Amino acid sequence: MRVLAFRHVPFEGLGRLEATLRARGVEIQYVDGWQPGAEIPDAADYSALIFLGGPMSVNDDLPYLRSEMEVIREAAARRQPVLGICLGAQLIAKALGARVHGNARKEIGWFDVDFTGAAADDALFSGLSRETVFHWHGETFELPAGAELLGSSELCRNQIFRVGTYIYGMQFHMEVTPEMISDWCVQDENCGDLRELTAPINPSANAARLAVLVELVFGRWVSLLPAGE
User: Fold this and answer.
1) Which end of the chain has fewer CB atoms at under 10 Å, N or C?
2) Which residue of the set 68, 86, 131, 156 is catalytic?
3) 137 is catalytic
4) Where are the domains of the chain?
């Protein structure tokens, strides 16, 4: 199996998810669309697509984001598994016709996500009720047509959605390690967000539980992927 991962800045990679995928025999190829001359391989040749986070907005007039949204629409048409994390979830939502806009408040740090009744029968999130996960976003999305809401937080209603069987969007960052969070806190692109916080972020606050969740949720996700790609 092969996965094509769309990265939007050098410091937001797959994190813990990469180890989970590789341990299950999944090959990974990154696409760095912001780089001059970057080309997108034929996405149809891969078992699944992952769209990662980034400090930009899906509403920014960036050619590589427009190209990625077209890739998402094509993947949805052929029922290819697609996973979006934070900005990636917003890209999926917008590509499928939903509005992306500013959230009432920025959600940065460790916050609870409550799973909906629909999540009880979901292939990835069954058995979960409330989990503390890491967030870093100032925007949110409306749900695309036909999407099922799987999770919400106090500050942001639309945290997780599924479209059909194979398309998932997650507003939060389950993939992060403490080292990634620490690194994000010193990136120039994030300094404006950090100045708005009333308390420093503890990168390790819920790291142990997050490691368990990554293995559970993304291990289940790998089981959805078509074999032999």
Assistant:
1) C
2) 86
3) no
4) 2-224
Q: Do the beta carbons of residue 80 and residue 43 sit within 8 Å?
A: yes
pLDDT tens digits along 134-190: 999 999 999 999 999 999 999 999 999 999 999 999 999 999 999 999 999 999 999
Q: Is 142 a catalytic residue?
A: no
Residue 55's alpha-carbon distances to 7, 58, 192, 199, in angstroms, are: 11, 10, 11, 21
Does the annotation mark 191 as catalytic? no
- Describe the chain by its helix, strand, coil percentages, rounded to 5: 30, 30, 40
What is the pLDDT, as a whole number, of residue 229?
47
Give the list of residues 6+ apart from residue 194 with CB closer than 8 angstroms, or none. Answer: 108, 185
Q: How confident is the model at residue 197 (pLDDT cuts 50, 70, 90)?
A: confident
140 within 8 A of 55, measured Cβ to Cβ: no
Cα 185 to Cα 94, 113, 137, 150, 180, distances in angstroms: 28, 22, 13, 29, 9
Residue 50 pairs in a beta bridge with 5, 83
* Distance, CA of 57 to CA of 27 (rounded, Å): 29
Tokens of 139: 């925007």
